[in-house]
Every structure is written in C-alpha cells, then in structure tokens.
Write a structure and sequence with these properties.
Elements lengths: L7 H8 L5 E5 H9 L4 H12 L5 H13 L5 E5 L8 H11 L6 E5 L2 H9 L1 E4 L5 E3 L18 E2 L6 H24 L5 E5 L4 H14 L3 H5 L12
The structure holds BIS(adenosine)-5'-pentaphosphate (AP5).
The site of BIS(adenosine)-5'-pentaphosphate (AP5) has 35 residues, from helix 1, helix 2, helix 3, helix 6 and strand 5.
C-alpha cells in the first residue's frame, strides 16, 4: 500500500524479478481492461482518466481473474484493497484461494515528493520504460532511449488529477491501512519511501525478512531497475 507515487509498483516489480513472486498490479490490470471496447472497459476508462477510484465490483472481477492466472507461491498485491468496501472482498478472495496474509507494507511519502514523481513521469508507449522529467529524463525529450518510441504522460498524472488522487488516498486508502494495523495478527509495516529506490527496496526486504521470507532476502538480488529506465 502507499500513496500514488510512493513506489508500490517500482518495488513490487523489483521483488517480482524473483521467479517466486507474482505481482497483481491493480492499476495496470484496470488500464488494460479500460482499452477493451466493452461496456465495463469504457466505464473503467472514465474513472481512471478522472483520477477517481474504480468501483469495487469492477476491481474485484479483474483481481479474481488475475489470481486464477497466477501460479507463483507468493503474490504481491499492488494497490488492493484500496478503500473500505474492498476489505471484505479481499478477505473473501483470501479464503477462496487459501492464502496466508504475510504482511501489509505501507510506503510513506510526502505529498510534495509524490507530486514531483507523478507530474514528471513519462512512460514509453511501446516498451513501458519509465522516465521522469525531473529526476531521470530521456536523452531526447519525448523519446524512449531503449526503443525510440514516443513517451506518454498518463492522463491521471496531470497536476490537477494528482492533487485529487492524493486527496482520495488520504480519505479512502489510509483508513484501510489503519484497519489492518488494528487487526491482530495481521503484521503491518510502514516504510519511508522518500529515499532512493535502492534504499526503499532494502527497507522492504528487511520487512520481508522479519516475516520469514528468507528466500527473498538470500537470493541474488537484481542490480538493475526492474523495469525500463527509472
Ligand atoms: P495505480 O496505477 O495503482 O496508480 P497509483 O497508485 O495512483 O499511483 P502510481 O502507480 O502512480 O504509484 P506507485 O506507488 O505505484 O509508484 P510507481 O512505482 O509507479 O492506479 C491507477 C488508477 O487505477 C487509480 O487512480 C484508480 O483509478 C485505479 N485503481 C487502482 N487500484 C484500485 C483499487 N484497488 N480500487 C479502485 N481503483 C483502483 O512510481 C511512480 C514514479 O515515481 C515513477 O516514475 C517511479 O520511477 C518514481 N519513483 C518510485 N520510487 C521512487 C524513489 N524511491 N525515488 C525516486 N523516484 C521514484
């Protein structure tokens, strides 16, 4: 869990480089669904582009489908559950699939840094490499260094939408983290996401070690960025 821009996907992708873990990347699943010319695809697109949370029934459907296609031993849920009415479906899916909930990790980031990370983000339309106009711009503005394709600005990464997404996070997602915190024996951890990615990643690994993921901490960890240029 964590606010928009806190690095949920960045860290999850680094962890998932191990063949042991699979990410259920809620935002990406919804973006894929939104480009399908179905009625639900069109509705989802509207929510995504306006920076609002997608209604829970659509979200649960894509998550359920994604779980069914997963064959790894470890699943990292990136961005689910994200509001109170998703807690019960989350536990139902947990029961249905006989999961053990090992840890809930909350990445903490100030809104000032989050805004810079999001408004500056540019994503390659072809290979998915991620750039940032403040921190790691491409060599040629608007063009991917890896494959020369056009870089895009996510519609929900405009300043106006980022403000809204951060507000929604505080109002709707923070209470979910608080819920997990209060419910023993769920182990919740807050990790500062202000530092460089490698350091945040190390902090997350330490948390995973605490909950018994020795396999994750002992393996040969990737030195690269996990996905594209970051
Ligand atoms: P989603 O795609 O999940 O977006 P988000 O959580 O709003 O934000 P981000 O993906 O932008 O943040 P992130 O924390 O993953 O950071 P990232 O690693 O990408 O969701 C999109 C939309 O889908 C939502 O608005 C909603 O409409 C819908 N949705 C999703 N889940 C839903 C749910 N459960 N219910 C209902 N609707 C749902 O990094 C961001 C940038 O920062 C990158 O450029 C990265 O390179 C950079 N960065 C990351 N970490 C660092 C670091 N430590 N230092 C410097 N830069 C960093």
């Amino acid at each position: 869990m964590g606010s928009p821009g806190s690095g949920k996907t960045t860290i999850a992708k680094k962890l998932a480089l191990s063949e042991l873990a699979t990410i259920i990347e809620t935002g990406e699943l919804l973006r894929k669904e939104s480009i399908r010319e179905t009625q639900s695809g069109k509705k989802i697109k509207h929510y995504l582009e306006s920076g609002d949370l997608v209604p829970t029934n659509y979200v649960v459907k894509v998550i359920d489908r994604a779980i069914a296609q997963t064959d790894g031993d470890i699943i990292i849920f990136d961005g689910f559950p994200r509001k109170s009415d998703q807690i019960e479906p989350f536990f139902k899916l947990k029961e249905k699939n006989d999961f053990l909930l090992q840890a809930v990790i909350g990445l903490k980031l100030s809104s000032t840094v989050a805004k810079k990370r999001l408004t500056g983000r540019r994503v390659c339309s072809q290979c998915g490499a991620v750039y940032n106009s403040y921190y790691n711009p491409p060599d040629k503005s608007g063009t991917c260094d890896n494959c020369n394709s056009e870089l895009r600005h996510r519609p929900d990464d405009s300043s106006e939408h980022v403000e809204k997404r951060l507000r929604i996070y505080n109002e709707q997602t923070m209470p979910v983290f608080e819920y997990f915190k209060k419910h023993d024996p769920i182990k919740t951890f807050s990790v500062s996401a202000e530092k460089p990615k490698e350091e945040v990643f190390e902090s997350v690994l330490q948390v995973l070690q605490k909950v018994g993921f020795d396999c994750v901490s002992n393996r040969n960890l990737p030195k690269g960025e996990g996905y594209g240029k970051q």
